[in-house]
């Protein structure tokens, strides 16, 4: 087990790539730097600030190591420090990609969940990406505004995205450095051949375009290697020890990752749905299930005919079931296997896309209607736009195998589908929990016996008991049915 501390070791090196706004190019720059530094032989630990599932897939491929999420709205500060030290301690660098604009957090009035907040908590130097297309002196005003908006912002320098000619990049560099007194580390010139395909929830998943993606990542890395002062960037990348590194009072002395959990052949098997339809999992969720004693067995609801042998519980994460609704619906063998497992009392848990699969049916945007598992009430319909996005505090209304009634856990919503309107009032009394979104209360989720699911995503590190209880439920089922 790695040595864990309550704050990042003073010798750790790392930095954050943040941006002025979504779409400014910070993801592209972060992916390229992950690729470039890994090519140069550095051991990288990639991170993503915020609740996003898609960008981490790109960083994982670029860096050659699983990317992990850090979120000051979903996790308390000590958990973030512990995870950062636990996973990053064996690396040469930790590279954190920010979320949205640097100061954008849970809402317009709160810093929780923002890149700024995370950079302060961890003492990370920040390199701010500026999209300077069609700018000159105005880039200096933009950079100065971000540098001075908060006096304690640890902005160490700037990276210019979408520069034109050398004369243009020189003009912008002079304007930014004169306005801020901080260095421009370099630029990423405009290139038409480094764009990445997108769909309604964000970029097309990294695994769906791995071959083309690797070529694109190398092109970005090549450009950064040519146009960035890497020596300067690395010299500014020491993680600073700050007052925020002190332990927050009131913390229960329980580490997120427990030592001494051995992998045994009789440990319960939790089947994890993972394929082109289901891919949204926080890496720490999966690792914590194993850390608490589970054996994970991955399967495809799209193409496999049954749950893995010895399965004692099932975990359906989020993803794009709407893109593969026909294949999911027509895989009668798998649907039958899941229904049979539910009828025998097997614990089954689904998040967002997982709920869509476990519900009665899924209506796609083209109007086609596809029967699903039918283990939970609700007919799901895709919409033409975003139906929910944001954080909330979830209070459980019923006792379940994951949490007891009254338990409060932070969660996140991001989905384009919803229950068909005529069913919402009818099902309200059966809600699994109540979600408080800055004073606005909404009911979420359903439970039928041993099957529970909702649109809410949880990060198990925010409440490691979730992982423990999931494993205990699987162990109980395994022993009862003599699976081990």
Percent helix among the residues? Answer: 25-40%
Largest sheet: 9 strands, mixed
Structural category is: alpha/beta
The structural domain count equals 2
Q: What separation lies between the terminal Cα atoms?
A: 27 Å
The share of residues in extended strands comes to 15-25%
| CATH architecture classification name of the largest domain | 3-Layer(aba) Sandwich
Q: How would you sum up this structure, described in words?
A:
This protein is α/β, with parallel strands linked by helices and 484 residues long. It has 2 domains: 14-241, P-loop containing nucleotide triphosphate hydrolases (Rossmann fold, 3-Layer(aba) Sandwich), CATH 3.40.50; 269-480, Class I glutamine amidotransferase (GATase) domain (Rossmann fold), CATH 3.40.50. It has 14 helices and 24 strands. The protein has a 9-stranded mixed β-sheet with strand order 12-10-13-15-24-23-22-19-20. Strands 3-2-4-1-5-6-7 form a 7-stranded parallel β-sheet, with helices on both faces. The two termini are 27 Å apart.
